[in-house]
Structure formats: C-alpha cells, structure tokens
Design a protein that fits this description.
Elements lengths: L11 H8 L1 H16 L6 H14 L3 H14 L3 H10 L8 H15 L6 H9 L4 H23 L8 H14 L13
Helix pairs in contact: 1-2, 2-8, 3-4, 3-6, 3-8, 4-5, 4-9, 6-7, 6-8
Amino acid sequence: MPHITLNTDEPGIRGLLRFRPETARPLNDLAEVLLRGESTLSRGERELIATYVSGLNECRFCTSSHAAFAAAQLSEGMALVEQVRADPDGAPVSAKLKALLGIAAAVQQGGRQVGDHQVAAARAEGATDVEIHDTVLIAAAFCMFNRYVDGLATFAPEDPAAYATAADRVITYGYTTTSPVAEPRG
C-alpha cells in the first residue's frame, strides 16, 4: 500500500508520475535521453545498466521493468540480464560493459566511490568519456528513481507479463512520446 493516496492504481513510478504529472515530463525526458538517445552503447546495454543498479538497490519494480526492457532489446534476452545481475564479471558481455557496470556499482554505493582506477579500466577497454559520463548519470538517476518508487511504497506486479507488455510500449513509443497507454519509466 503506497504511503500516499494516489489518483491511479498503476504500479511503481507510473502511478507516481500520474500523481504529479508536472514531474513526469522532466523525469521521462531524462530517461529518454539516457536510455534511448544517441549513444555508442546500445539501448539494451543502457537498460542493462539501469537494471543492474536497480537490482543493487533492491527496487523490485524498477529492476523488473528495466530487466524486461533490456531483455527485449538484447539478442540474448532475459538469460543475459539474469547472468549480469547474478555475476557481472562472469557474464558474457564485453570487457567494456563489465568495466562500465563496475563504475555503475560504485555510483550506487556513493558518487565518491568511483575511483580513478575504475575510470582507467573502462578507458583501457575502449570506453569513451561520453560512455563513462552516461554510465554515471544512468546509475545516479536510477538511484533516485529507485528511492522515489520505494520511498513511497508503490506497488510492483508479481506477473512478469506486466513488465513484458510495458517493454513493448517503451520500445515502440519511448519514454516521452504519448502512446495509447502512456508508459512512464520505472
């Protein structure tokens, strides 16, 4: 049961964004740029970073949402998402993505936890300044999103199909475009 009375029964951040629509636009704009905008990292890789951080934060709604969004955009699907969540160093992803996930994990612990050695390791694997920047911002943003969702005790569906349906909408319409059922990020 949410800590506040929402004007919808939509789960997670979707309900919160309906409650305060004036906050929805800037939050969704940020998600759109970070997760779907121009980047040398694929959309699936960026969603995977969001999933990983949300999992570290134990935010069930955001983890489930972005796991579905990542899986739908990665050829290896949910199996890869689960491997990364369980053991990012052993998962079959590029060394660059592993290094970026290490930076994301450090951000999740606190911004000052990111050290020169982690940035140097990412650069050694070919990460650009923009990729390092965006990884840090994705991780920081998802720490905020996770705390927003969990801090107000929003509802998270148990059924994975709910997240798969949301993934179809996000992939088709994005985070900011009005869709038949608008899908704010989770």
